[in-house]
UniProtKB/TrEMBL annotation:
Its cofactor is [4Fe-4S] cluster. Keywords: 4Fe-4S, Cell membrane, Iron, Iron-sulfur, Membrane, Metal-binding. Pfam families: Oxidored_q6 (PF01058). The keyword NADP does not apply. SUPFAM superfamilies: HydA/Nqo6-like. The keyword Cell membrane applies. One of its GO terms (molecular function) is metal ion binding. This is [NiFe]-hydrogenase III apoprotein small subunit. InterPro entries: Complex_I_20kDa-like (IPR052375), NADH_UbQ_OxRdtase-like_20kDa (IPR006137).
């Protein structure tokens, strides 16, 4: 035990390098989302995250949007605690049998206009959990989905690009993949 303690004092910490994302590109992308949200809603965008049974990989990337590097709140995008305050439901993971009713009730509690975004491969079709006795399948089997953001897990920039694509849908009626 003593040896581990001394070694930890000598060795530098193991950290990953910062993501290779251009600050200008991220700023422009987030600003475009804010402009689109204000044009369609008249205010900033409120997002409610719903974990329908995931492995938490997508949640880590989704919550990275609020860290000091991405800091999406400076653009008016924010995560809210209640579906009654949300414009977008950001659903991760395959829908498990235990979470199907909760997801449906969350969808019904969200006021119109609302959009549902299935985040990651598992939310799209069940991913590697498809066919399990405990999994119903993708989010679209329980609630209508407006946008699928692929990836396992998708990067924060992919999530921002997907949200922009949600608002750039010209008709406002169609589903985006």
């Amino acid at each position: 035990m003593r040896k581990l303690l001394f070694e930890s004092l000598i060795r530098p910490p193991l950290t990953e390098p910062a993501p290779p994302v251009s600050e200008a590109a991220m700023t422009e992308l987030a600003a475009a989302i804010e402009r689109s949200a204000r044009r369609r809603l008249g205010r900033s965008l409120s997002i409610r995250a719903v974990d329908a049974g995931s492995c938490n990989g997508c949640e880590l990337e989704m919550h990275a949007l609020t860290n000091a590097f991405y800091d999406i709140e400076r653009f008016g995008l924010r995560f809210v605690a209640s579906p009654r305050h949300a414009d977008v439901l950001l659903v991760t993971g395959p829908v498990t049998r235990n979470m199907a009713q909760a997801l449906e009730r969350t969808y019904n509690a969200t006021p119109d206009p609302k959009w549902v975004v299935a985040l990651g491969g598992c939310a799209r079709d069940g991913g590697c959990f498809a066919g399990s006795y405990a999994v119903i399948g993708g989010v679209s089997k329980v609630v209508p989905v407006d946008l699928h953001i692929p990836g396992c897990p998708p990067s924060p920039m992919d999530i921002l690009s997907g949200l922009l694509g949600l608002f750039e849908d010209v008709s406002g009626e169609g589903r985006v993949s």
